[in-house]
Amino acid sequence: MKTPTRNSRKNFSKSIIFSLVFLVLGFIMAYSYSLSSANRESEKFTGGAFFEQEEQYRKELISQQERNKELRVELQNKQSNVQEFEQSFADGENRYTEYAEEAKELRRYLGLVPVQGTGLKVTLQDGEYNPNSVNPNDYIVHESHVFQVINELYISGAEAISINGQRIHGNSHIVCTGPVIAVDGIQYPAPFVIEAIGEPKVLTSSMELTGGIIDQLVNDNIIVTMDEGLIIKMPALLTES
Questions:
Q1: Do 99 and 202 sit in the same domain of this protein?
Q2: Best CA proximity match to 209, nearest among 152, 167, 157
Q3: Sign of CA dihedral 163, 167, 168, 172
Q4: Is the pTM of this model over 0.70?
Q5: Phi, psi (5° rounding) for residue 137?
Q6: 138 lies in the same domain as 105
Q7: Do 79 and 139 fall into the same domain?
Q8: Is 232 exposed, middle or buried (CB count within 10 Å of its CB: 0-12, 13-18, 19+)?
Q9: Residue 40 phi/psi, 5° resolution?
Q10: CA distance 186 to 164
Q11: What 8-state DSSP symbol labels residue 127?
Q12: In terms of Cα–Cα distance, which of 138, 135, 144 is closest to 126?
């Protein structure tokens, strides 16, 4: 049996030292690789999660913008509907006012309500008797003369008219019977007082037009007098139910 020499022992020691060094180096390299891989995985995971979260926020933002757009359109439609309703309501109020005024004017025209106001009074009297006249009708007031005055007053804007205090309405009839005139069957002798409620100056100017009603009545030997600006009252023909 050989006894180990000094050199063999020295080589054996070196082998053990190198083995330990390589083992430590291997362990360090393995640990470094493992740590590097873990860092790469961690970075990969962190970056992917951030991207996904950012993408989710972007989708939510786009969705919210679309919803805001829909809400704006809906709000505009609601505002348009409100404006249309307000306009229709205003138009309805205007129409109601117009209808009320028309109804009021119609009641006045039909004599269903009493009226009062300033206006014009026109008095028609028979002309002075002329013994040389062959026909006495040449100087008395006829229903045609009364109609002329009434029509002119209505054309000039008269709101209501009466003859000798009797209210005239849309269906009134005036008939001349000798020296008297019957208004809706009620007879009145001359003079005939025709009263009209309206703008006094307008009514008077219309009657006094050159070649107008006054000139025609004077040519027919009718005596005409006018008083404007009087307060005229007229009762209703019928009471409202």
A1: no
A2: 152
A3: negative
A4: no
A5: -65, -10
A6: no
A7: no
A8: buried
A9: -65, -40
A10: 10
A11: P
A12: 138
Given a contact cutoff of 8 angstroms between Cβ atoms, the answer to whether 199 and 157 are in contact is yes
**Cα 229 to chain centroid, rounded:** 38
Overall residue count recorded for the chain in this entry: 241
Q: Domain limits at 59? A: 8-110
Do 118 and 104 share a structural domain? no
Cα separation, 119 vs 108, in Å, equals: 15
Each residue's pLDDT tens digit, 138-152:
778 989 999 999 999
pLDDT at 239: 45
**What single string gives the DSSP state of each residue in 185-236?**
TEEEESSEEEEEES-HHHHHHHHTSTTSHHHHHHHTT-EEEEEEEEEEEE--
Domain count, the chain: 2
44 has pLDDT over 80: no
**pLDDT attached to residue 155:** 94
Helix (H, G, I), strand (E, B) or coil at 124: strand
As a whole number of angstroms, the distance between CA 72 and CA 28 comes to 65
Q: Are 86 and 146 contained in the same domain?
A: no
147, 130 in Cβ contact below 8 A? no
Based on the fold, state whether residues 144 and 43 are members of the same structural domain: no
